[in-house]
């Protein structure tokens, strides 16, 4: 039986800002882009969440929901620094760490001898240490696998702990809403609801074959998750080789001009995701992916350590000429240089 802890900072960017600026602590606060520049909310504190403000929401809309909301720009370098400090605290407990983003990580403490191997007490200790050292609160989930640990860390947020012991798994999962399952987005949840499934107890009644018929390979996963089974390992050595943003359009893009017009928004989102990668990653190339309306696809790459919209436009034109048909999906990406990351990993200094 494994013991997994999932740790997730509470309203991370906003928490750092509230720590450093006492005047922000008791007001609704968001970190995000300006409303007059079509900005979006990166995150907000819990006072703002009470008004319905959420991550990824347009700032203009957030201000409608909460007119007293204070929106401030983010300071990524500072958040990265706090993230490194937090990951270092986790590393004092185990090297079996899988960082998922700046503020989130899985720890496999199955073999830890700390506190006689009590994962619950390890998690409490981590929560205390992070708060003492960084002034940020984290929530933690303890469970026999990654899926349940992640659900658990969200259960008593903010500043909470939730433990799901092996003997509690069955009951816990039966009462769980299917939309809490990893990989079940709003579309799948709707589809399941039509089938009469809202909880995992409902889901458990469906056979493997039935699920495979409706959901393909994901059906097998649903079968397992609804029984609280998740055998994924905590992967410590994963080095990302690329990062990309893709969008499938509800209506095919009929001309190259139409395709080119989507570069700015995709490029912005790509840079946002890149800025959130753990560690300092160097770019060694850029690429564009196009999928045409007949589902054929093509990727055009260019080795380069610099990037801008015009380079992506050039690649997109080349790619478009290969198919010369309406486009259903566009993707932009960076190839990442792994040499330095791999070297740092050897020294356990990454991220
Ligand atoms: N983030 C972002 N844009 C998003 C989602 C998140 O820029 N669409 C950033 C801001 C968050 C950080 O990533 O502070 C961590 O994301 P989480 O989803 O863990 O959200 P929070 O930590 O802010 O809140 P929670 O307390 O719900 O974990
Ligand atoms: Mg968080």
UniProtKB/TrEMBL annotation:
The keyword DNA repair applies. Keywords: Cytoplasm, DNA damage, DNA repair, DNA replication, DNA-binding, DNA-directed DNA polymerase, Magnesium, Metal-binding, Mutator protein, Nucleotidyltransferase, Transferase. Its cofactor is Mg(2+). One of its GO terms (cellular component) is cytosol. PROSITE patterns: UMUC. Belongs to the DNA polymerase type-Y family. NCBIfam families: PRK02406.1 (NF002677). This is DNA polymerase IV.
């Amino acid at each position: 039986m494994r013991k997994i802890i999932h740790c997730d900072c509470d309203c991370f960017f906003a928490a750092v800002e509230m720590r450093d600026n006492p005047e922000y602590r008791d007001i609704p606060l968001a970190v995000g882009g300006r409303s007059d520049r079509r900005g979006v909310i990166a995150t907000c504190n819990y006072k703002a969440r009470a008004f319905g403000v959420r991550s990824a929401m347009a700032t203009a809309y957030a201000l409608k929901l909460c007119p007293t909301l204070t929106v401030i720009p983010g300071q990524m370098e500072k958040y990265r620094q706090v993230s490194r400090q937090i990951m270092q605290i986790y590393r004092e407990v185990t090297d079996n760490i899988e960082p998922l983003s700046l503020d989130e990580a899985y720890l496999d403490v199955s073999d830890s001898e700390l506190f006689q191997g009590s994962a619950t007490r390890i998690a409490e200790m981590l929560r205390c240490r992070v708060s003492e050292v960084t002034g940020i609160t984290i929530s933690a989930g303890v469970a026999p696998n990654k899926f349940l640990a992640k659900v658990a860390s969200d259960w008593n947020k903010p500043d909470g702990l939730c433990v799901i012991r092996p003997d509690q798994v069955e009951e816990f999962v039966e009462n769980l809403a299917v939309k809490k399952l990893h990989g079940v987005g709003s579309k799948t949840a709707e589809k399941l609801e039509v089938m009469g499934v809202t909880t995992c107890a409902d889901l458990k009644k469906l056979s493997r074959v039935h699920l495979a018929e409706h959901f393909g390979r994901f059906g097998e996963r649903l079968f397992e998750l609804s029984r609280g089974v998740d055998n994924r390992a905590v992967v410590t050595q994963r080095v990302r080789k690329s990062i990309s943003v893709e969008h499938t359009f509800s209506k095919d893009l009929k001309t190259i001009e139409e395709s080119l017009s989507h570069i700015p928004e995709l490029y912005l989102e790509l840079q946002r995701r890149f800025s959130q990668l753990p560690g300092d990653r160097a770019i060694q190339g850029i690429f564009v992916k196009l999928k045409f309306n007949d589902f054929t696809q093509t990727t055009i790459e260019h080795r380069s350590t610099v990037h801008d919209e015009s380079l992506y436009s050039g690649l997109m034109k080349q790619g478009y000429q290969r198919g010369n048909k309406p486009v259903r999906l566009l993707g932009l990406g960076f190839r990442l240089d792994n040499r330095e990351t791999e070297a740092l990993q050897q020294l356990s200094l990454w991220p």
